[in-house]
Amino acid sequence: MIESVVEVQRLFKEIGDLLAGTPEPEKLEIFVIGGTVLLEQGLKPATKDIDLVVLNLHDFKLFENTLNTLGFKSTKPTPGYVHMNISQVLEREDFRVDLFHTSVCGKFSVTDSMVERGREYLILDSLAVYLCSNEDVFLFKTMTERSGDIEDCISLAKRGVEWEIILDELKNQIKLSGQNVWITWVGERLGILADEGLYIPILEEVEKLSEEYYENELRKYPS
User: Fold this and answer.
1) Domains of the chain from N-terminus onward
2) Is the alpha carbon torsion for 164, 192, 185, 85 positive or negative?
3) What average pLDDT is seen over the chain?
4) Claim: this prediction has a pTM higher than 0.70
């Protein structure tokens, strides 16, 4: 378990120091999408892993190789991560890094709008770390079955999220990738959150998107 943002920052600086010794001409950019964002805001006491997205294949391989040089070893995702399509899982002692190349859960991508909403976290000579917005972290967490993600969504909502941003991003993802089964996962998780007493003003509209997905699937296989 990672219990302090100081530990996370120390790891990023370790990565940055190693990258500084390479001939790479450009700064490597990574986006943090998971529990680290909540840890940084004091919304949870610890996180099991650091969820990171790298936006192109070159940077993905560079980051992966850097972690390997620092003693991280590849391992298999646990069952709760089955929907996430993690590109690589790397572990070293108490650190686990879930590394994604461009997309999460298959076709759910880090978009330009997500990049614009990202907040500078740590800018080093050869590494730039950005925290995705609470809205985007919330949306990512509605697509997983990991223990604790429901509680994280509740914490984010109580801190305050712009629901229209979440809905707009969801619609944006549909335009980019086409309707996909992950739309139904979002609807199901929002339903669970509503049952937990959380007010979700976009729930009805998200449920309509889920219904449209099912209707389109039925049209593909007429009786």
Assistant:
1) 5-218 (3.30.460.40)
2) positive
3) 88
4) yes
